[in-house]
Specification:
By secondary structure, this protein is of the alpha+beta class. The protein is 34% helix and 24% strand. The chain folds into two domains: 61 residues, Dna Ligase, domain 1; 236 residues. Strand 13 and strand 14 form a beta hairpin.
Length: 318
Amino acid sequence: PTTYLMPKETEQFKQAADLNCNTCWICKPSDGTEGDDIEIVNSYSEISGEMLKRDFVIQEYLSKPYLVSEKKFDLRIYVPIIGIDPMHAFFCEEGIARFCTVNYQEPNSENKSNHFMHLTNSSVNKQNANFVNKNDASDDSSRRRMSDIFQNIIKENPNGSEIVAKLKQDIRELCGKTINAIHARLVDTVEEEFKESSVVKSTLFQLMGFDIVITNDFKPVLLEINGNPSMSTFDNVQVGEEVVREISEIDVEIKIPLISDLFTLVSMYTKDRRSLDSVSSFGCLTKVYSNSVVNPPAELGLLHHIKRIYNHILRYEE
């Protein structure tokens, strides 16, 4: 969605808000975590004084999400990046759907402060008595598998299988093109961070969490990227007056294979930097980006070749 970095882009946001008076905007502190201090506003004048003292992001609120059981949700999708030269990014084929705990209505002056309706963060919704914490990720659980969402779409729509196939492909392409867009910045950051270090760049990897909302016409939209997604497989569960730490089956089911497959690929890459060039998938992971000249994902092929030609021209001009 349209996004502004505040306070740097204050004037640009004010102009956009003036032109779109009926649009809602969501304010997220740059240093915030777990949904803390998020605000939904219609104009600059509604932003709290406390928020204005901080660096924050303000983003157009997506008011027409695809709903399941009348509730809004988002998808936490895991995207590991391995290496720098070459760099490979993979998409974990299973993710977590995180649900709100109040039936959704488009934001208005009466409900826009209801975080249980508009924010999908589990840490926020656990504060609501309606939060359903079931290890089996059943149909009424507030945390479900991404594949459960796809099955729901298939059941609800006559051409559901075609919708899901296209949606999956769109999500993979979104992840791959996002990594393609930030690749140069990642390379520059690594060069700066490790210019005086003996760290071997072939040992570098990063696991990222992409937060995506599906619109009511089945389009995936990237909301934000978390550079340090939780890999915990435990959950705090209220039992009577006590909080008990229990193993979360959905987290074990998704995160253990993810970590295992990721470390296997990292080990392969560390031994031979070209070892992943021809790997299109491994376990639960599917390649969505590669800057290797060998076998890049088909949907990024044209972008990849344009980049190579551009870089060649730059080198020639130098």
